[in-house]
Design goal:
Strand content: 15-25%
Distance between the termini: 30 Å
Number of domains: 1
Oligomer: single chain
Radius of gyration: 16 Å
CATH class: Alpha Beta
Order of helices and strands: HHHHEEEHHEEH
CATH architecture: 2-Layer Sandwich
Number of helices: 7
Length: 144
């Protein structure tokens, strides 16, 4: 499992610090967050904590020419992905929400766990120049 993950990250993603991942995450943690099957022995809280730590380890990650993913965090009521925007783009929050919903796999482990734990998926966008922020909230009803 770990070898395939490392190969995948080397060839199909931005350069990743494989040694850092292997140093900071156990094989069990990597299997939990990289598996397409839900491990019922792991609580939803623990799953999201590991996922947030893993995703944040991979950050910052350029999403497009103006957006950088800077990290993730989990609260009792939400799983939050934080993004930083450069320049002053005009955001249509409704269009952005539609695009996010279209790209979410509602059958994924993370989506199912969000619904089961009654957590929204929040996408926070902060403008680096102005400090203004906007949050797109994907509710559990949106994920059903």
């Amino acid at each position: 499992m770990i070898i395939m993950t490392a190969i995948s990250m080397l060839f199909f993603s931005d350069p990743v610090d494989i040694k850092g991942i292997l140093k900071n995450f156990t094989d069990e943690e990597l299997e939990i967050i990289l598996s397409e099957k839900d491990n019922e022995t792991v609580s939803d809280d623990n799953y999201f904590e590991i996922l947030a730590r893993y995703q944040t380890f991979l950050c910052p990650k350029k999403v497009d020419r103006i957006t950088t993913w800077i990290g993730s965090e989990v609260t009792d009521s939400a799983y939050i992905q934080k993004y930083e925007l450069k320049n002053n783009p005009e955001l249509s929050t409704e269009l952005l929400k539609q695009n996010i919903l279209a790209s979410i796999n509602k059958d994924s482990v993370a989506a199912k766990r969000a619904v089961r734990s009654n957590r929204s998926l929040n996408f926070e966008y902060t403008n680096r120049n102005t400090g203004e922020s906007s949050t797109i909230v994907i509710t559990t009803d949106d994920l059903k």
